[in-house]
Design a protein that fits this description.
alpha/beta, 2 domains, six-stranded mixed sheet, 17 helices, globular
Length: about 375
């Protein structure tokens, strides 16, 4: 065996750290029949529910294809990944991983969807739970599901960390969904509050799927992060946003100032941009690069000229703006800076002909 590069003293320190830190991650296993799971499951705010989904988990976003595949797997007896739960301070079980699967089970049991094109059990296509032979209904009700129960020594930060590790190792979640589970805090609560802002949702439409997967949170976070420090962005957007959010959650920030910043931008866009952040009035969704350019550029313009009214926005249809807001290299720091400042300069009426035609100044 090769000798460790660490000294005996260092190895002792490592041993003690692992011993101490791993206490929060200790776990046990239990097997629950589905009929027990459905009786335990309920809303987080319902004290009678001993199994619940915490508010940092994502919305129910599985489509019918995924739900049907999961139910087919159960009926076939396929080995399944265990559910991860944690005992909270009231001895209730908080679901860390498995919310989509548990909600699918319950929705099927309640006949809320029909199976769609199962790959192997083709004879049950379009079936609901009540359509299955009674023997298979009972088999499903009595099937045991393995549950990994994290110790009650796990505090909220440990549970969030487990959630983050599970969902970053298999890349199931969007960055915005992972942040909701692993970077919650006072600043993120503000973002969640603002995502329901009525005027903002009017000028910044999203598809239902994108909204469920946290796109509003993503856009609002980008707005604040870039208005605070777009010139500091260097490489990876996700890391930049994670670091910003973690920093802001730890700060005693001025909540009213950030709300005012957001509302001033929203009011201005609603008043002077006929299509809002859309490419056209009939567009059903908002491209990120277009949102970033217009939202942050507007904020910068208002910082320079607080009484800005009736701006000339003909540059929105220019070749230069189109070049700046195409997705090609959209997360390049130079491109980010250029598109934000293009909008700022457009609103302040200082774009050159070269910029309007080419998206940049010729030397």
């Amino acid at each position: 065996m090769k000798k460790s590069k660490f000294s005996e003293e260092k190895l002792e320190v490592i041993y003690e750290q692992i011993k101490k830190k791993s206490i929060s991650y200790e776990y046990g296993t239990k097997d629950y029949p589905f009929e027990v799971i459905i009786n335990k499951f309920g809303d987080e705010k319902d004290p009678k529910a001993s199994l619940y989904i915490p508010n940092y988990q994502r919305e129910f976003v599985w489509d019918n294809k995924k739900k049907s595949r999961f139910i087919e797997s159960i009926l076939l007896g396929v080995p399944l990944t265990p559910f991860f739960v944690s005992e909270d301070e009231n001895n209730r079980l908080e679901i860390i991983d498995g919310s989509q699967r548990i909600r699918t089970l319950i929705a099927f049991f309640n006949n809320e969807f029909r199976l769609s094109k199962p790959k192997i059990l083709t004879e049950i296509d379009t079936a609901t739970f009540k359509d299955l032979p009674r023997w298979h209904q009972r088999k499903m009700e009595l099937r045991d599901f393995r549950v990994i129960v994290v110790s009650d020594k796990a505090d909220i930060n440990s549970r969030k960390d487990i959630f983050n590790r599970i969902n970053t190792s298999n890349e199931k979640l969007k960055d915005s969904e992972i942040r909701k589970g692993s970077h919650s805090g006072k600043f993120y609560d503000l973002i969640l509050e603002l995502k329901s802002h009525e005027a903002f949702k009017i000028i910044c439409p999203l598809t239902e799927k994108k909204e469920k997967r946290g796109e509003y949170e993503e856009l609002i976070l980008r707005f604040f992060a870039y208005t605070d420090s777009y010139l500091d962005f260097k490489h990876d957007v996700a890391i930049f946003l994670d670091n910003y959010l973690e920093k802001m959650n730890d700060l005693e920030f001025d909540k009213n100032e950030y709300i005012s910043r957001f509302e001033d931008m929203t009011t201005f866009i609603k008043q002077y941009f006929p299509s809002g952040f859309r490419k056209t009035k009939n567009s059903g969704s908002t491209p990120r690069v277009r949102f970033e350019a217009i939202a942050v550029g507007t904020y910068l313009a208002l910082q320079e000229q607080k009484d800005l009214i009736n701006p000339n926005i003909s540059w929105l249809s220019s070749k230069g703006f189109h070049i700046q807001t195409t997705s090609d290299s959209s997360n390049n720091p130079h491109r980010l800076k250029n598109r934000i400042e293009f909008v700022r300069d457009g609103l302040l009426n200082r774009l050159t002909e070269d910029k309007l035609d080419n998206g940049y100044n010729k030397n």
